[in-house]
């Protein structure tokens, strides 16, 4: 039997497994994909393993729902941070670090709200129709007058599989500028191959791109399908951003056991 926990961050949902004893076969792509399947498995946008690290509180390993180990997931990082605190793996909830595929992340947990420090952004490819930047995962960001008028699956997959971003593809974000420091974002995620209710690295990329259009703002409220997130940062140069924080709720949904399938 596999013990698991289900968490969600603004509708971006994840299976989390405590793998500090290395009991889970992370090389089994079919197994991970099965567990993420919403009809035959547990269901989730992705699966995360919490493992030991010699210097930091833990290591986060993230897998997309297609079963492949993937680049950084911001909402996943917030959820695994909440899981670690609530399972008392963390001794100092207001200040701890963990290792992820893109490096070390600082985090703080207060009453269900997780603040997660993201990697610095040191380069942005600014084109007429879009920006392209890496916030732990690669993101294409384009602006629209109304995010609700976009066919996310059609337009997102068109960009994701375009020759420009081969061979690995990209995540795709559609952003609407609202009043003040408010923006609305919808995201097509590679690996999920569909729109998700929220994408942490995507809203970070969207907020930084919005700053380029609204340079007086370095603190954004982002409306996504799953709720609201906050992103704030410091600008060090024309294309250099640091102290980037992703802030929002990370919520325990349920826990359980599932029989280890013969895959």
Please give a structural write-up.
By secondary structure, the chain is of the alpha+beta class. The protein folds into two domains: 2-118 and 250-258, Diaminopimelate Epimerase, Chain A, domain 1 (Roll); 124-241, Diaminopimelate Epimerase, Chain A, domain 1 (Roll). 17% of the residues lie in helices and 42% in strands. The chain contains four helices and 17 strands. The strands form two sheets. Strands 5, 6, 7, 8, 9, 10, 11, 12, 13, 14, 15 and 16 form a twelve-stranded mixed beta sheet that branches. It has a five-stranded mixed beta sheet with strand order 4-3-2-1-17, sandwiched between helices. The longest helix is centred in the last third of the chain and has 14 residues, at 200-213. The radius of gyration is 18 Å and the shape is globular. The protein starts with a strand and ends in a 5-residue tail after the last strand.
Question: What key phrases describe this protein's structure?
Answer:
alpha+beta, 12-stranded mixed beta sheet, Diaminopimelate Epimerase, Chain A, domain 1, 263 residues, 42% strand, 2 domains, 17 strands, 5-stranded mixed beta sheet
Number of helices: 4
State the helical fraction: 10-25%
Percent in strands: 35-45%
- CATH class bucket of the largest domain: Alpha Beta
* CATH architectural category of the largest domain: Roll
The radius of gyration computed from the alpha-carbon positions, rounded to a whole number of angstroms, is 18 Å
Structural class: alpha+beta
The CATH topology label of the largest domain is Diaminopimelate Epimerase, Chain A, domain 1
Total separate domains: 2
Question: How many distinct beta strands?
Answer: 17
Low-confidence stretches: none
CATH homologous superfamily label of the largest domain: Diaminopimelate Epimerase, Chain A, domain 1
Q: How far from one another are the termini?
A: 14 Å
* Succession of helices and strands: EEHEEHEEEEEEHEEEHEEEE
Q: Give the integer mean of the pLDDT values.
A: 97
**In one word, what is the shape?**
globular
For the sheet with most strands, the description reads: 12 strands, mixed
């Amino acid at each position: 039997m596999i013990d698991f926990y289900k968490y969600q961050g603004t509708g971006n949902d994840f299976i989390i497994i405590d793998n500090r004893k290395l009991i889970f076969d992370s090389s089994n792509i079919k197994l991970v994909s099965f567990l993420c399947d919403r009809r035959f498995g547990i269901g989730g946008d992705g699966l995360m393993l919490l493992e030991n690290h010699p210097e930091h509180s833990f290591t986060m390993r993230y897998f997309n729902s297609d079963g492949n180990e993937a680049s950084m997931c911001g909402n996943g990082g917030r959820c695994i941070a909440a899981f670690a605190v609530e399972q008392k793996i963390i001794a100092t909830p207001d200040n701890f670090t963990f290792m992820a595929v893109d490096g070390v992340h600082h985090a703080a947990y207060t009453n269900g709200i997780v603040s997660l420090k993201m990697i610095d952004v040191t380069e942005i490819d600014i084109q007429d129709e879009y920006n392209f930047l890496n916030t732990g995962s690669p993101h294409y960001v384009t602006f629209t007058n109304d995010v609700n008028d976009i066919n996310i699956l059609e337009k997102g997959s068109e960009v994701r599989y375009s020759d420009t971003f081969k061979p690995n593809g990209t995540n795709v974000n559609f952003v609407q500028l609202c009043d003040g420091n408010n923006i609305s974002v919808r995201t097509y995620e590679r690996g999920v191959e569909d729109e998700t209710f929220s994408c942490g690295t995507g809203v970070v990329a969207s907020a930084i791109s919005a700053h380029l259009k609204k340079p007086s703002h370095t603190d954004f409220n982002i409306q996504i399908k799953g709720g609201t997130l906050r992103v704030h940062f410091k600008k060090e140069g024309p294309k250099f951003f640091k102290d980037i924080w992703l802030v929002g709720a990370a919520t325990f949904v349920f826990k359980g056991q599932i029989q280890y399938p013969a895959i």
